Amino acid sequence: MQDDPRYLKRRVTANSLDVHPTEKALVVHYEVEASILGEGGGQMLGERKEGQKIIRVKSLSPSTDVGALAKKVLEECKLIPSSRLPQVEQLLYYLQTRKTSPVEGKEKKTVKPRELTPFEGMELNEEASITKVDEYVELLYEGIPEKIRGSALILQLARNPDNLEDLLHNEAALGALARVLREDWKQSVELATIIIYIFFCFSSFSQFHGVVSHYKIGALCMSVVEHELKRHDVWREELRKKNKSAPENGSLRRDQDKAQRKYQGLLAKQEQLLRVSLYLLLNLAEDTRTELKMRNKNIVGLLVKVLERDDEELLVLVVSFLKKLSIFLENKNDMAEVDTVERLARLIPCEHEDLLNLTLRLLLNLSFDSGLRAKMVEVGLLPKLTALLGDESNRQVAMRILYHISIDDRFKGMFVYTDCIPQLMQMLYEHGEDEIEAELISVCINLAANKRNAQLMCEGNGLKMLMKRALKMKDCLLMKMIRNISQHDGPTKSLFIDYVGDLAAEIRSEEEEEWVLECLGTLANLTIPDLDWELVLKEYNLVPYLKDRLKPGSAEDDLILEVVIMIGTVSMDDACAAMLAKSGIIPALIELLNAQQEDDEFVCQIVYVFYQMVFHQATRDVIIKDTQAPAYLIDLMHDKNAEIRKVCDNTLDIIAEYDEEWGRKIQSEKFRFHNNQWLEMVESRQADESEPYLYDNDNDNDRTDLFYSADGITPGDGSVSPDFFISCSRTFSSTTASPGRPVTAYGFRPDEQPFYQYS
């Protein structure tokens, strides 16, 4: 015989504490153990059930005393033992400092659609109860009004996160809601909005995404959005026709106003449906696989079309969605194919702070694409972005977009027609001795590469301010900006005369290489005719420094290259060129040329130094008679780099004019090269039997002008001495094509073809 029940024993145990994913609240997970004891105290029945309690702390703010609040939480919630006070404090501190974003949140979303407004014909006079869900489901099998009522009651429950778990297990309810949405969404905007809102509540939590996907709600939302956008186009066209055809009389004017009011009412309901549908899709897009499915169904095109709307809340959502999508290349390319930038341009500026900030961040993502940067300039965003430099909250993002635009040489000059440069200079001035933000100085460096921009920067005391701060703070980036300014010919360059001594004083071995590089580069740009470089080199003892830095490996390649450029600049002065030649810099340059022969810029700049030195009588003799520089120049005469060939030809022309022996060698090499080209062309013609000969022998025998003449090397009748060909064949026996990069007499690379050696 079973004992009669005497009393109930109940025990509640707190298992874990956590923070609420979307609200300022703590979540206490607890376990209730209930036992029915018999007369003898033995357990007759027992049951355990898990639950959770949400403790909302809406008063929590950055200034709240977390310790005091934690004690108050323990006093009011008896489920939490006092031993957990440190844990409560830690969780409250996390809530106090937590930052969430509607786009970037991982687990749960904090942004929800604006509160649903009461729908026409739907009045709810009762409070929904989780125990009556089955009754609400029965309403879903009746007419549209009843379906709206039933779904609205379920929505009341779904908006409380505590009820989602129970609703999740009610497959009949979720299945009925999905079926009604699938079958009736075109019949009632209100019904579609409510049901999608219910599933949106589930989509706010990552762990419930599976149930939303199971019922294919995302695909349905894509269909809803596409259909509503098409319907909106029909509405606008109908309204346009009525406005166009309505004459100015009282009755028809009233009909027109009525149609306009009806359109606005339909538009409000439609935008509410679009908002909740897109929010749901945004939540589901956390999964990149789901996002890819959306892309395949043209989510980008749909979102960009919604940018035509005026509802700011809807626009915030759409721009947030596009910003999230834009981090993937495929989505960015889709945005480039439609009028994304054009439609975003109208949102800048706007009074809605969140919308403006999100739009700028989306444009920042898009500005990594050169074509989209060009589109931004084309639609007039440059002056709009410049105007935002005065807005403290949006300055940094606007500056980053301007930086990307300033990278492109095509657009640097367009900054002249805005007030961007005066604003940038004012910002630099206001920094004083504080560190300059990377975005600000980066934009300035890029813009200084344009001549007109540089002139604007130097207006007034602009250059003086820049030089004073750069030299005082030894700011390498600011000096890089000054270096870019110094490269432009014209009145700007002459302003640097006052600072030559200051810059030369910084070129010392004790200074950081990066700083010396910028100062030296600025000096090397100062090709000013009236500047006494000999005095500068002597006063600051720069010749030993320059010579030491020419040794391969003595410094970074960038610094060595600037030393070569500096030597080329000062070599324009006759006295300086002679001083450098006597110091033994020319052999050092030849050694560097041998070491850096693969670097076109090094080769070109070293050859330019030779070009400058052969202008002066004192250094010309040293170059021609005491070094092998002419032989190197002949080797480089047919280089693949056009700039190197140009400088070599100019230098060799001067050498040939002043030295007959080298002149003959130079002419001989030119003839050999052109003759090789001729022979190769003839051989290739002969190899192709289907092609006729280039010239008709019967008609062109007397065309002696077709032969290359080299002042005595080839006679005027076109014949060539056999001795010449024998000499050439011994020298170039293995060379059948135009040589690549020649090497000097100081070294030979096994992969190079033989070069012409001069005795």
* Order of the strands making up the biggest sheet: 1-2-3
What is the percentage of strand-forming residues?
Answer: 5-15%
The counted number of beta strands is 3
Report the principal-axis shape.
Answer: elongated
Note the main sheet.
3 strands, antiparallel
Structural class: mainly alpha
The percent of residues in helical segments reads 55-70%
Figure out the total of helices. Answer: 40
Mean of residue pLDDT values: 82
Question: Radius of gyration in whole Å, from Cα?
Answer: 41 Å
N-to-C span: 127 Å
**Uncertain segments of ≥5 residues (pLDDT<50)?**
1-6, 100-123, 692-759
Would you write up a description of this structure?
By secondary structure, the protein is mainly α. The protein has a domain at about 5-95. The chain is about 60% helix and about 5% strand. It has a three-stranded antiparallel sheet with strand order 1-2-3. Strand 1 (about 5-20) and strand 2 form a beta hairpin. Helix 31 (about 555-570) packs parallel to helix 34 and helix 37 (about 640-660) crosses helix 38. It is elongated and about 125 Å long. The model is unreliable at about 1-5, about 100-125 and about 690-759 (pLDDT under 50). InterPro entries: ARM-like (IPR011989), ARM-type_fold (IPR016024), Armadillo (IPR000225), KAP3 (IPR008658).
Give the SSE map.
Blueprint: E1 5-19, E2 25-38, E3 43-56, H1 66-76, H2 85-97, H3 133-139, H4 144-158, H5 164-168, H6 171-184, H7 189-203, H8 209-214, H9 217-245, H10 250-284, H11 288-296, H12 299-306, H13 312-325, H14 329-337, H15 340-345, H16 353-366, H17 370-378, H18 381-387, H19 395-407, H20 409-412, H21 420-431, H22 438-447, H23 451-458, H24 462-473, H25 476-486, H26 491-494, H27 500-505, H28 513-524, H29 533-539, H30 542-549, H31 557-570, H32 574-582, H33 585-595, H34 600-613, H35 617-625, H36 629-635, H37 642-658, H38 660-687, H39 697-700, H40 722-731
Antiparallel strand pairs: 1-2, 2-3
Helix pairs in contact: 1-2, 3-4, 3-6, 4-7, 6-7, 7-10, 9-10, 9-12, 10-13, 12-13, 13-16, 16-19, 19-22, 21-22, 22-25, 24-25, 25-28, 28-31, 31-34, 33-34, 34-37, 37-38
